[in-house]
Write the structure tokens for this entry.
Amino acid sequence: MASSMNKVEDEAFVTLVTNDVYSYGALVLGQSLRDAGTTRQLAIMVTPQVTQAMRRQLTFIYDVIQQVDPLDSQDAAHLALLTRPELGITFTKLHCWRLTQFKKCVFLDADCLVLQNVDDLFEREELSAAPDVGWPDCFNSGVFVFRPSEETYQGLLQCAVGQGSFDGGDQGLLNTFFNTWATADIKRHLPFVYNMTSAVSYSYRPALEKFGRDIKIVHFIGTSKPWRYSYYPETGTLTAPDGGNYHAERYIKAWWETFYKRVRPRIEEEQGIDLSGKFGKLHLEVSPSGSPGESSPTEDPQLQQWEKGQMDYLGKDSYQNIEKHIDTVLNDKSK
Ligand code: UDP
Ligand code: GLC
Ligand code: MN
């Protein structure tokens, strides 16, 4: 476990991962909190699907690794409205109210990146959160301040059973449960810079130019997560997974720099391998310029899927399988 010296023991930043690929997000998020000099505990909830190898990596950054059972809203109709069938699993987030060893916590989605110290969030009360850009009278549930409590957890479950979630994920349920957020207390409205949903750069770019330097937390909402981009360490450039560049490039770069400089070396040291080339190969099958020679056309449908960013994270492209592949290559080389 990471050292917990000089830490406030009863307050924690909390995140959640239900698989290895979101864990890359959590490694970068946790590192970014440490680099911003937090004095709070770092806790992560993991479901059984997260591999041992990945949990070991997480122990280098997180003080508490709490296994939880996956909860699923199984609300296909509402999730379809959101066009994100995978988000039912985000109900698992509700387990954070059971972390009663802490008095107060800040939940952060695993797709967040901290740019500046945000320990002042612990001065806020439950439930504090920032507006959702899609409907600003709702809060976005990627960043929120809460008080762990078994009673609140049970209340949330009852609300889920009785009223369900209007978006099929945790955000719809939490906005139903904490339904006075929009009107009751302005102190519970976090400034947008604590949850800058990065797609906003396209809806209000001048504001981004003016206030960009105040941003404390970037939240990469949507399907184009930073780990789905390709990163070219030698030039520091990127290519987007779906051909488009949905998120502001500078923040995706900041995510990748944290991964490359701060997280990757520990994976390499721990596993005794050199990932720079190998990691590059995983993400760099197609060069940014598209110049011939650097990308090899392939008939392999699985490789084509990977090149399009459509990884089968839980199956053939799982962290364990990738690790196995790296081992095989290294063993072959040393023969
Ligand atoms: N999450 C997870 N596994 C999944 C989907 C989501 O662990 O398969 C967790 C993770 O912490 C993630 C959060 O639930 O950040 C919310 O999902 P996501 O960030 O994808 O939603 P968005 O912010 O894009 O709406
Ligand atoms: C959102 C939030 C995310 C939440 C999801 C499902 O857009 O960003 O944190 O898990 O909706 O409700
Ligand atoms: Mn998110």
Q: What stands out?
A: The chain has two domains: 8-213, 225-334. Residues 225-334 form one domain. Residues 74 and 319 are 27 Å apart (CA to CA).
